[in-house]
Amino acid sequence: MEETDREAVATAVQRVAGMLQRPDQLDKVEQYRRREARKKASVEARLKAAIQSQLDGVRTGLSQLHNALNDVKDIQRSLIDVNKDWRQSINTIENLKDVKDAVVQHSQLAAAVENLKNIFSVPEIVRETQDLTEQGELLQAHRKLMDLECSRDDLMYEQYRMDSKNTHDMNLIHVYFGDMQKLSEELAKQLWMVVQRSLVTVRRDPTLLVSVVRIIEREEKIDRRMLDRKKQTGFIPPGRPKKWKEKMFNILDRTVTTRIEGTQADTRESDKMWLVRHLEIIRKYVLDDLLVAKNLMVQCFPPHYDIFKKLLSMYHQALSTRMQDLASEDLEANEIVSLLTWVLNTYKSTEMMGNSELAPEVDVNSLNPLISQNVIDQLLSKYMSTLTSNIIGWLRKALETDKKDWIKETEPEADQDGYYQTTLAAIVFQMFEQNLQVAAQISEDLKTKVLLLCLQQMNSFLTRYKEEAQLYKEEHLKNRQHPQCYVQYMIAVINNCQTFKESIISLKRKYLKSEMEEGMSSSHPNMDVILDTIAKEGCSSLLDEVFMDLEPHLNELMTKKWLIGSNAVDTICVTVEDYFNDFARIKKPYKKKMTVEAHRRVVVEYIKAIMLKRISFKNAEERKEGAERMIKEADQFRFLFKKLAAGSGEDTEGLCDIIVAIAEVIKLTDPSLLYLEVSTLVSKYPDIRDDHIAALLTVRGDASRDMKQTIIETLDQGSSQPNPNYVPIFKEITVPSLSVPKLLK
């Protein structure tokens, strides 16, 4: 206490010191004293209240403890009294055992009395139930069956309660009610028959299906009640639980599976379209069944059965199993396509699960795939392999058929523009189109793969086509009279190349996206090259045909006969024009090139005739006459090829100008100007060689050896600047004579 007082005094001193730090605060001493007095009074009042509250609580607690002590003493005395009474009643309880047995026996007898009527009338009830079952009165038959089962179950339960180990009495009851089990099984058969035909029954007699569902619901309730009693007592009647609801769904599941599998009416041997028919029947049956289930069956089943959802699941699973089975068979290419198209497209389309009448219960996006991606990949791989073999076979057969046409004695058909053609391109690309359309039904990816395959096989096919066209030409050269329509069919081959080009472009545009088309074009560039090569070789072979006919007339050029007067050039022009009447049936890109090539070859052959030195003019008169004839014939050629190239935009003047330029050299009357004229010729046509000049001077017939040597040597020392647009022509012309040095000697 003293220590506490000292701390209180010290604290008070500090507070007073804090209040009186300035002189002016001395005036407020009285004010401070009153404030502290009020605080002290307040604290003392709270302290008294707290102490009083604590005292009241302690007083109450003591009172309750006293009461509890009294209660404990009372309970102790009561327990002593109860113990005395229990000890005294033990003998009395043992004496009541006989009463207990009597009560149990009374209970059994009461149950027996209660079921006595049913017990004695079991045979009669069995017969009635059997008759009702046969008559289709299923609800009434089940009611009687329930009464029989209830009687049997109550008796067996009472026997179980009295002596659960007494199997003899239990078996006796079971045997007595033995016919009841057969009735139950017979009734179940009737129920399952209705369930199996539920999709038909619900349309004709929905009340029958409702009766079946009601019976199943009754049995489910009894099952639940018996299971609850088993938990409490350990007893359950024989044959329980029946689980008829579970059996009903199993029956429905088997029925759905059988319905799906039973739709295959044909085999591949009896009908090539067996799978298409099978899948179409499945589609129709499943759609009809689900519509019946949605619109009618749901009204016959309790909502908690969720019958439509369960049937949808059953159909989906049955379809999945069936599709897996079909996929595992050795399917042909068209059958693989039919199966994949049905699985990937038809199944979820508006023709089946996506049908608006099935919405919103059926959500196609939530349906699992009918077959796994792995199986799909295997089928696609097999399809691509089979398709590759088929395309190779189809292309080979198409080419063989086309080759047979080449040797026909009738001209090939012409298109609407009059161009010769064979059916090869149409057959090939019709085949490609059909396969691409089929692939497009399955997926974009497969469509692209099939297009790539078609283009790859087209590449190989064109190589064979080129080889066959070359063999066709070689066979014709062995006997030019056979085949009779060689020219016309070679024209058709050339035109087919253009048709192939256009069809390939069309195919890519139709079945490829633009970004993929660019990559595809770069990956298949040599198809155009092969086609151009085939067309070029075809055009060349046709021109060879022309020039083989022209050969005798070309041999007349620049001869004595030609100088005296020959119609060789007239015949050449008529022959070329006649051939080009047939060549008019060649499509423009190739006809244009062919006209230019024919023009060039005619001029080359004419110049070759000059360089062969078949004639050497003896005097100026002959040179003039020959030169004028050359100029005239150059004009004939110019007119001819201008006519043939009409509308093509080709410049046909330059080639014939070479003949005119050579004629000017021959026509020159003043030999002193010969060097100048020859140098002009060389400057225009820089590929002209010394042997060409020597041959030309030999044809003139008035140039001495020294003059030839001087002109050639002088020209060799000079340099000429060729025209960048000039196409060399003299390099193709050889002079079959002695070399220039030997000639000059």
Automatic annotation (TrEMBL):
Coiled coil: none
Xref: Gene3D superfamilies: 1.10.357.50, Exocyst complex component Sec6, C-terminal domain (1.10.357.70)
Lineage top rank: taxon: Eukaryota
Keywords (A to Z) from UniProt: Acetylation, ATP-binding, Cell projection, Cytoplasm, Exocytosis, Golgi apparatus, Helicase, Hydrolase, Nucleotide-binding, Protein transport, Transport
Localization (cell): Cell projection, Growth cone; Cytoplasm, Perinuclear region; Golgi apparatus; Midbody
Transmembrane segments: none
Molecular function, one GO term: SNARE binding
GO biological process, one term: exocytosis
A GO CC term attached to the entry: growth cone
Family assignment from sequence similarity: Belongs to the SEC6 family.
Cross-referenced PANTHER family: EXOCYST COMPLEX COMPONENT 3 (PTHR21292:SF13), EXOCYST COMPLEX COMPONENT SEC6-RELATED (PTHR21292)
Subunit structure: The exocyst complex is composed of EXOC1, EXOC2, EXOC3, EXOC4, EXOC5, EXOC6, EXOC7 and EXOC8. Interacts with EXOC3L1. Interacts with BIRC6/bruce. Interacts with MYRIP. Interacts with SLC6A9.
Chain's role: Component of the exocyst complex involved in the docking of exocytic vesicles with fusion sites on the plasma membrane.
Name of the protein in its database record: Exocyst complex component 3
Organism ancestry: Eukaryota, Metazoa, Chordata, Craniata, Vertebrata
